[in-house]
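Database export, one record per block. Field names are fixed; values are copied verbatim from the stored entry.
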Amino acid sequence: MQLDFFPSRTLTLYMARLFVARIIAMLAVLVVVLLALDLLGKTGEILAVPGNGQREILTYAGLRVPELIASFLPYSVLLATLITLVTLNQNSEVVAMKSAGLSAHQVLAPLLLTALMVSVASFAFNENVVTRATATLKAWEGNEFAQVPSTSEERSNVYLTDGTDILVAQRLIGSGAAIRMEGVTWYKRDPLGMLAEQVKATSATFAAPGWKLEGVEGFDVATAETRKGSELVVARGLTIEQIELDGIDAETQSFFALADSIEAYEAAGRRTSELRAAWWHKISGPLSAFLMPLLGSVAAFGLARSGAVFIRAIIGMALGFAYFVVDNAALAMGSFGGYPPFLAAWGPFLLFLLIGETVLIRTEE
């Protein structure tokens, strides 16, 4: 039984095939171009490590491609929407559809259904591929491309606090009592909050309490003296549980894993607005692909001979890119508490959904 919202089965499949082919083509072009530009900047860093070669460059490319796909899939859907609709308009196919009694929403229905399926596939791809590739790539970059980590248990550039004192580690490996830091710097402050001492160490392990630094080299700010030692215990108030919480990266965790991390943060009395906004955005981000046909729909209508199709395509592109600008701005506002997490993640989507519907109804319905 066919729903009245959709045109005939033949027309639905025809438009869906056109749309999917253009999405794949645009995504491939964007990923290839952006990956080439990225490799121009990273190849030198990768090859600077002794022993690295073509294999490591290909490994980097393989880890970077999932991130690029996840980031630019909505852009690809937007561009594919404009190309598909402009082509149908110029070939008078949209005129034929409307002459057959189809409304503007029925003309767009196959594209909206296809975009919704793309959004679902994008969410699954992000959960199962992108998070793992991102975690591995960040760990490898944190190790300055010295070796490819076999797991994603490694974190890089970890920033921790113990009161007013700060502990920074280039790498954090393992979990629980076996956790280990490498490339450690300890910044000790006086009661006035001024830097009193800086201590660098090759590694640090949990001393229960505190963290035992090894290969110590310290600098006293007041006396300008440098001292060296084999071991030093610092940050006695910093526990393993605090480190595991501070090590949460929303980009490297799946939707359900991040939900568990947010619960742990809230149980510890920590601020969770940034993580919760990122958690909501794991749904609203992929779903933005569903919004693109609606924002680009203005390119489908209007007589091709009037010369206004190009202007309509520009308007559709402007609406689409405006959404991405507002979406990023809302997430930035949500990260420091300017917006509630739900509003930061869903506000732009709902706003541009209404804008797209308004433009479509006012101009075509």
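Remark 1: Strands lie at 155-162, 165-173, 180-189, 195-206, 211-220, 225-234.
Remark 2: The domain at 155-248 is CATH 2.60.450.10 (lipopolysaccharide transport protein A fold).
End of record.
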